[in-house]
UniProtKB/TrEMBL annotation:
<protein>
    <submittedName>
        <fullName>PspA/IM30 family protein</fullName>
    </submittedName>
</protein>
<feature type="coiled-coil region">
    <location>
        <begin position="101"/>
        <end position="135"/>
    </location>
</feature>
<dbReference type="Pfam" id="PF04012">
    <property type="entry name" value="PspA_IM30"/>
</dbReference>
<dbReference type="InterPro" id="IPR007157">
    <property type="entry name" value="PspA_VIPP1"/>
</dbReference>
<comment type="similarity">
    <text>Belongs to the PspA/Vipp/IM30 family.</text>
</comment>
<keyword id="KW-0175">Coiled coil</keyword>
Amino acid sequence: MTVMKRVRDMTVATLNDRLEKSEDPVRVIDQFLWTTHQEITQSEGLQRQYAAHTDSLYRQWKDAEQWADKREQQAVTALKAGEENIAKLALQDKVIHDERAGRYRQLYEQSKTELDDLEQLLQELRNEYRLVYDRRQFYVARMESLRLQQRLNARFTPGGADTSQMFRKIDDRLTDIELETRSLRDLRRMGQETLLHAGEVVKNTIERELEELKRKLQQGG
């Protein structure tokens, strides 16, 4: 595992922890996506450089092999012509190109392995970006649901407007008014009855007084 890979794993491992501690998960995810996007961009640039370098090493390797094969053919031709010294010179040059081909092949294989690792890491970064982006969209939708639920709860809380309670209060008020009106009416009626009763008492008193005067007159006469 390369250093780049180890660092990347550490970065991913801290994402969930940061999400759990944050009150704004979308902001944390946006920061992570921005960092990941930067890493993808840098990795793509490095991948292009590695690909070009690996391709150059491959050409150097194959070029050295071709020169080695060519020198070997020249050595064979020289031997057939009885030119042993020329054959030795050709073989000497062949050995040089064989060594050169071996060195470039080793560099190529190393570079190719690193290029494969980089391409794998790049693919993981892209997959991870898409995965985290999908999670972001989910969090956005979830937060919108919570916001709408809060508005719904604020609109229909127990302490909010209650139509049945409102009409019950109106009914109670009307009942109070009716009782008050009835009480006033009863008081007026009682007043009238009292006046009538008082009138009867006065009338009776006058009648008694009249009878008393009549008796006095009779006795005096």
